[in-house]
Amino acid sequence: MTDHPHDRPADTGDGDNYDPTVHDPDLGSSGSSPSAPADGSGGRGAPGDDDERASEVDDVTRGTPRPTPTDGPLDADELEGSTPGAPGSGAGADADRRSHQDLAEEIADAVDEAMSDVDFSDVDVEAVLVERDEFKSMAQRIQADFDNFRRQSATRAQADADRATGRLAEAMLPVLDAAEAAYLRHPEEVGPLLNQMLVELKRHGLETLDLDGQPFDPEVAEAVAHEPADGGEPVVAEVLRSGYRWKGRTLRPAMVKTTD
Fold first, then answer.
1. Is 173 within 8 Å of 251 (Cβ atoms)?
2. How far is CA 96 from CA 86, 112, 118, in A?
3. CA 93, CA 85: separation in Å to the nearest integer?
4. What tens-digit pLDDT sequence spans the chain (260 residues)?
């Protein structure tokens, strides 16, 4: 027991929890708790306080549905449906579905009523069928004309592209002639370059006319010399200048020497 009842005992430090009822023997043995109220309420306050707090809670949560003790536990569907503001759930969603169904029924009833007022007795069914067939034939002719126009447009576009690229290939022919002339003098040096040029041009549509020993055709060959023989149909005896075809069209006739 200390001299001053409110002082801490010597065996308690700054970090200890000091309880007068425990550390002070006089207070601990007094047999009554200083914090206990005299009315025996156990520190819970006046009896009207609980009712007042419950009333305040009811005022705050009045708009929130709560299960009553007699309802029993709620399952997951009931909890989801009772969540305020949950989309597609609760009484609001049911009301929306009912309103949509009612609107659909009203529209169907209005259509049925309008159709029931139409008199089809004076309609000439045969004339309607004839008119339908005429419109159908007209639509088929227009569709066929459009298909033909589309094919012709694609053909013309391809022909224009071939002519444009053919002019470029024709501009390259003097280069090929010079490369062939150089090949005759220097085959080992010029051969790889000439072969590479021909391969690339053939890949885009250029064809070299192979007329040696073939019957003479003025469409693809131009005879500049003739060597008489036993007579008969003229044939190509020698190609003096190569001829080329571009995508099936003769780009330049070959210059040849013929014989009988």
1. yes
2. 14, 24, 34
3. 11
4. 445 545 555 555 555 555 555 555 554 444 444 444 444 444 455 555 555 555 565 555 555 555 554 445 555 455 444 444 444 455 666 777 778 888 988 998 888 888 777 777 777 888 989 999 999 999 999 999 999 999 999 999 998 888 888 888 888 899 999 998 999 899 899 999 999 998 998 888 899 998 988 999 999 999 999 888 777 788 999 999 999 998 888 889 999 999 88
CA gap 210, 236 in Å, rounded = 10
Structure tokens at 218: 């003025």
Query: Cβ distance 202 to 245 under 8 Å?
Result: no
SS (H, E, C) 202-248: HHCCEEECCCCCCECCCCCEEEEEEECCCCCCCEEEEEEECCEEECC
Alpha-carbon distances of 72 from 67, 98, 190, rounded to whole Å = 8, 29, 101
Q: Please give the helix or strand (H or E) that residue 259 lies within, else none.
A: strand 254-259
